[in-house]
Design goal:
This protein is an alpha/beta fold and 273 residues long. The protein has one domain: Rossmann fold (3-Layer(aba) Sandwich). A 7-stranded parallel sheet has the order 3-2-1-4-5-6-7, with helices on both faces. The longest helix is centred in the middle third of the chain and has 29 residues. 40% of the residues are buried.
């Protein structure tokens, strides 16, 4: 008879192998650290091989691999390398994504308007945020399904559930400095839908698929934006990059063993009103 795990043991990832895409980003690095702290061997995945290697060296028994999540052959190569080194994949964190960036702040407000939003930016968001998640889930999730074990965590956003409040991008003069485009919310909403599809599809293969939807992270934004965002949040602040570590470990570990198809919202209360 299998011994019942203690509450603390349920959160352990000792002996597990976890893949994180977009691992060199602000939240991605903290995801990697959290998984390593819980005992996992972490596969640090991003576009820059040298930087992936350097960051992986700061983690225990981990590996850096450059990968382009928009190309299936790149993901297959990643999977094969992991299997060769570690023999299995237990956790996939689909974290890689792009957000709107405009080189010229003066034109940002005009270009980000829905009426003017460039089609190439729309297509690029769909390719990375949605197709990339689809391809990583298809390649690595299939490997998990073949082993009858795995946890996939798709990183979405509060904007995948509620529309952006464009007023938070107004400065103290009342000027609209930027509009949150349709691309990011639409792709993140689709990621939540993909999560539900995969949870139902692979439930009989013991592959759990859940979404983690974070709120905005404070990262040197302008003071007016931080104030506007915080005012709309019951906890009265933006997130710290470390605020999502516990939720990630919960979804990756046996602590959430009877949880699939769910959307875990960690947003300081943003979506409560």
């Amino acid at each position: 008879m299998t011994k019942e795990k203690s509450s603390i043991e349920l959160f352990s990832l000792k002996g597990k192998v976890a893949v994180v895409t977009g691992a060199l980003g602000l939240i991605g690095k903290h995801f990697c650290k959290a998984l390593a702290e819980a005992g996992a061997s972490v596969i640090v995945c991003d576009l820059d091989q040298k930087k992936c290697n350097e960051f992986a060296k700061s983690l225990n028994n981990s590996l850096g691999v450059d990968v382009d999540i928009t190309k299936k052959e790149s993901i297959v190569k990643l999977k094969n390398e992991i299997i060769k080194v570690f023999g299995k994949i237990d956790v996939l964190v689909n974290n890689a994504a792009i957000n709107d960036m405009f080189k010229n702040p003066r034109s940002a407000a005009e270009l980000s308007m829905f009426e003017n939003y460039p089609l190439d930016l729309w297509n690029q968001s769909i390719l990375v945020n949605l197709t990339g998640t689809f391809l990583c889930s298809q390649v690595i999730g299939t490997e998990m399904a073949n082993r009858n074990s795995g946890s996939i965590i798709n990183i979405a956003s509060t904007y995948g559930m509620v529309a952006p409040d464009q007023s938070i991008y107004k400065n103290k003069k009342g000027e609209q400095t930027f509009y949150k485009s349709a691309a990011y919310p639409v792709t993140k909403g689709a990621v939540i839908a993909l999560t539900k599809f995969l949870a139902a599809y692979w439930g009989n293969k013991n592959v759990r698929v859940n979404t983690l939807s974070p709120g905005g992270v404070e990262n040197k934004q302008e003071d007016f934006f931080i104030e506007n965002y915080s005012r709309k949040t019951p906890l009265a602040r933006m997130a710290k990059p470390t605020d999502y570590k516990g939720a990630l470990i919960f979804l990756a570990s046996d602590a959430s063993g009877y949880m699939t198809g769910a959307n875990l919202v960690v947003d300081g209360g943003w979506t409560t009103w």
